[in-house]
Amino acid sequence: MSTSSLVQIAPPAEATFLGNTFSRDGELVYFTRLDEQNPLGALYQVPVLGGTPRKVLGNVSGAITFSPDSKRFAFSRFLPQQGESYLMAANTDGSGEQKLATRIQPQFLSAYGTSWSPDGKMVACGIGMNDGTSPAQLVVVPVNGGSEQVLNAQNFGFIFRTLWLPDGSGLVLTATPKESATRIQIFLVSYPSGQVRRITNDLNDYGQSSLGVTEDGKTLVTTQNESSAQIFVLDANKDSSEAVRVSNGKYDGMIGLAWTPDAKIVYVAQSGESIDVWSMNADGANQKQLTVDGEFKMSPTVSPDGRYVVFAATRSGVSNLWRMELDGSNLKQLMPGNVSSFFPIISPDGAWVVFNSAGAGNVGLWKVGIDGGEPQQLTNTLSLFPAISPDGNWIAFFSLDASAGGKPRIAIMPFAGGAVTKWFDISPAFNPDAYPTLRWTPDGNALTYVDQFNGADNIWRQPVNGGPRKPITDFKSDRISFFAWSRDGKRLALSHGPVTTDVILIKDFK
Question: Model-level pTM?
């Protein structure tokens, strides 16, 4: 901090890093990462001056937290196939594991970091709900047994990293407010009263795992992410440098876009806290706002005949599926009131909407008729971001392959339901939560999705008949938040733009 030097302390790895913690003596850095050998995460340690990382413990999710005497650490652990997560403690060498708390789907522990209280008696962690009907909770768990205490009275959408203040008077945490699920902010929760106060209140995102407090409790350190995205259209046979920008908003298409049969683009745009569905021509002309209530919306999908737009929207704290005419008229709720539903996609025959829901615990696949009604469950294990083949016979999605040690992979199953027929590998560093788009190519020969390589997002193509995956775009920088193929397969629309990340200090936040 005093010299602003930047030193690499561990070699690069094809992996996803989930959070780091200094040992209390400042000699070691403990970090968690997902890699090819440890798809459920593993804890490593490395000297603060650099060296070869040493594996301490397997199946560790997120940043760990040390007890005040430095003899033990606490962490979260997930068994996604069983739908269970645990708050655990262990000795610093990884031995002596102890289970402190258990959650069964639809409840789950936050994977972004727990915090041991300064008096050594409690561990704090975030608890989420997959069904989307209940707010996230900040929970304090006694280390030596006893009743858990829920602290927050305010509605959080999701809780990420939690940290006790050094004097034990409260906790700081990064979380999404329930009313604005797209922006991660910093909060102060008093202990034991549970009173909540916002430290930040802006349109930036703050650190998920990245959060620290100085020993005097007066200064926070975190990351601040400022993102921007506009919609670009790219001819499928042209170089990525020839992509044409067709919108000028700050968050256009970032949480959803789709093509209509007559080559218009339907997309979600945000202005301040207002999030609505819009449409425009493929060249950006004739922009039209289709919804006007400003509530959170995402993932619009257009019926093959161009009559309907279906999207997910949050009202009264629950994400549901809604259908409207292409001009924005005749809005209709498709699902029963409190069934949380998201990431819809309309079948090629226009009869069904396939979507994600946690109505039965794990986030699985369901389908409902285009006119609404009772939904039908297709999978009962973790199954994310459905994509339907052009012939309507198959559904692809991201899942965890139990036969491969729980490794994230792409799965294909029959549209009518049943067992997975094919699995495809994805890169060890791939994070499905960051890239919620999986799409078949219009010819049905391949699946496409976004992955990062050499610091830039690009769209990759995986042939469904086997063979290696290959990038089909060659952007040199920035992020792709969402993309869609035109109905004839000749063009791509994508939400593309920079993400600027800075390390910041916040002083006198109390």
Answer: 0.86
